[in-house]
Amino acid sequence: MFKSKIILFSLLAIILASVCFGDFSEASETRENCICLVYITGVGCPNCAVTDPVVLSEWTLKYPNLVAIEYEIYENNEENYPTADEYFENYISSGVRPGIPFLILDKDNVSLGRFEVLEAEKRIENLCENKLPLPDNSCQKFEDLDINNLPGKPNIWVNGRVLTPVGEKKADDELLKKLLFEDDILSVLEGLDYTIIVPELVSFSNGEVNFDNALLIDGWRFQWNGEGLDNSLPINATALAGLSNKINWSKIFYPALIIIFVLIFITSVYKKKKSEPAT
Fold it and tell me: Between the CA atoms of 42, 43, 47 and 50, what dihedral angle is there, to the nearest 10 degrees?
């Protein structure tokens, strides 16, 4: 009976700890099971005006593990058209005229034109994971991809956030993925050098997206909504250390307290059992 109680309370401690700590691994698991797509569009295209906000804003908020790699080819023709042209060549059937909007999930799942692009959500709903289709007709898991090596000047949309290359792309790949997926962005930035900037509008066809926060880090502009950085502090994450540490300790304190309480209880029960006279 005594051993059964010990086992029961030990299991309880493990369950409570896993519930409290579960959020630490959730973002990592989401990142490892991404649904990736490539989306080729152009600012000023009337059909793209219908699909841009749906694919890049609505879907990336609706599906937390969706990664949309956007190649805009009108305003960024020089940087992005060579990559888009390679996608057209390798993913559009012979005899079919290339055009935009164009959405690619894989070689056998492509959507050309606004009606087909909007219909692609039905396939996304049924996907658990999807590798990123690359221009040369190969594919790669997002977790294994080095974002810095993506050709051209893509916008990378995840969770209502966007990454855009603005110079020599040399950021730590793991850092970029954490910025896209982790809930606690301040903690991710702790100890790093970056520059806080005024958010820039990201243009859609017939529209634009506003963000609350923006920063530059190693050749990338990262923009997001929600909790931001304090512009009154020095622009390096050292100034945020106190705040970030407080956030981290608050996550650790309560599950640790639960575990300590259960261990004390088990110890007290064990001592009481030992002190009882043998029968």
Answer: 120
